[in-house]
Design brief:
Length: 220
């Protein structure tokens, strides 16, 4: 922060702490600024989507699963199908497909359920993976900004003669600000990527156990 204030004062601008946001926007320029903005919006959007999708109620709601298994035990298959069909959970989607195929044979129903589960799980894993991609891309863009800013600063020196402090400050500020913003995006993205990945693994394990318990009713 002290370095930013120093370079801003050398360049003859207002102190950074009075208008920090505008200083960051101005330092990033029209290339890195919109790029970081797009990454930030995508990161926030994916975080909200994953937070809603990777939850116990979205994967296998305990009350719904309990009611579904009770319907199977009492051989109320039509009611169990309606319950699964009306549910937006992953458990409901899988068994809604399986119960439709159950009239053919058990193997066909099991295959349909496996295909549906694989498709839905892949969709969830890809969505989590996009956060990991942002965590990898953001610091690389920041590093690119660092290199570009240093090139600008050294090109001023390479022209010969006493370099203008404002021209040096522009290049160095670009290098520092892009590095900082890249890390500010990447660090929380990496943390949330690991959190969502571990959470999804645990919930899918619980889903497999609940599916096996429900399938036992059909095998009987």
């Amino acid at each position: 922060m002290d370095a930013l204030i120093f370079f801003a004062q050398v360049a003859g601008t207002e102190p950074v702490n009075e208008n920090l946001l505008w200083y960051y926007i101005d330092a990033c320029g029209w290339v890195f600024g919109p790029t970081f903005l797009i990454l930030s919006i995508a990161f926030v959007t994916l975080t909200i989507m994953n937070w809603l999708a990777i939850s116990r109620n979205a994967i296998a709601p305990p009350e719904m699963v309990e009611q579904f298994q009770a319907k199977l035990e009492s051989k109320e298959y039509q009611e169990a199908y309606e319950l699964a069909k009306e549910s937006d959970s992953l458990f409901g989607k899988i068994f809604a497909v399986g119960l439709v195929k159950m009239s053919d044979n058990f193997d066909a129903a099991k295959q349909a359920m496996d295909d549906t589960a694989e498709e839905e799980v892949m969709r969830l894993e890809h969505r989590v993976g996009y956060i990991g991609t942002i965590a990898s891309i953001a610091p690389m863009i920041g590093l690119l900004g660092t290199v570009y800013g240093m090139i600008i600063a050294f090109s001023v020196i390479a022209r010969g003669g006493p370099p203008q402090a404002s021209e040096l400050a522009d290049g160095i500020a670009l290098a520092l600000v892009t590095t900082q913003i890249g890390l500010m995006i990447a660090i929380p993205a990496l943390i949330l990527f690991e959190v969502f990945k571990n959470r999804l693994t645990r919930l899918l394990l619980e889903l497999n156990i609940q599916m096996e318990n429900s399938l036992k009713q059909f095998r009987k």
